[in-house]
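Lab meeting prep.
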Amino acid sequence: MDIYVDGFLLAIPATRLHDYIRVASTAGSIWKEYGALDYRECVGDALDVPGMVSFRQAAGAKDDELVIFAWITYPDKASRDDINRKVMDDPRMKNACEGIFDYSRMSWGGFKTIVHV
């Protein structure tokens, strides 16, 4: 399994959802342009499951915030590193999400695929 995944969890103000969708749509196109296999951005809908840590809690979402769960897939980790470098250097990404959400509260990590059916 070489497919590599970057995963994201963040909270955004509910009033900024349309701004976030606009920026995420542009970002997704850029990631795919540079070789990402898939780019998904999802807004929380059913997040509070009794007896489990909720995604709202994990994201540190306030009452007026929505939870975003997102992932990007790549052919492998080396491709991910190369693609992410190109995306971060792309002028279309400069300050793209500034003011929409607090980066310091975002969770992000890279994941090796262990099952893919």
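Slide two material, second protein:
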Amino acid sequence: MASEIRASFGLTATKGSMSVNKSNFTNTADLAGARYSSVVQDIGNAAHEAIVTAADLSGPGWAMFRNLDATNSISIGVDVAATFYPFMSLLPGEAALCRLATLALYAKASAGTPKLETTAIEA
């Protein structure tokens, strides 16, 4: 069977005379296997730490990240030679959807120990 994964999203913004409406985008993908990982983990603020994904996923696919904290933001990125390079920031309560190029992702909180929900589906 094909196109077992379906990811839908949109983006709208209005302020004064500026208006953007990019909505109803849908991506589909084939599911490479039958595995996914869904976990909630505490993210510290002293150093970046690995985002937990299931070790038996066959490779990167689609992922959703959600910051479950009401106060602190979380940065998501990669580690290169022990240096953290964030490419995404989730403010309190925000979520993001993306297609992954790697399962080796890291996160760091702005303060406190917020909870990050990560769901990854192999594709």
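Talking points for slide two:
The chain has a mean pLDDT of 90.
The longest strand covers residues 18-29.
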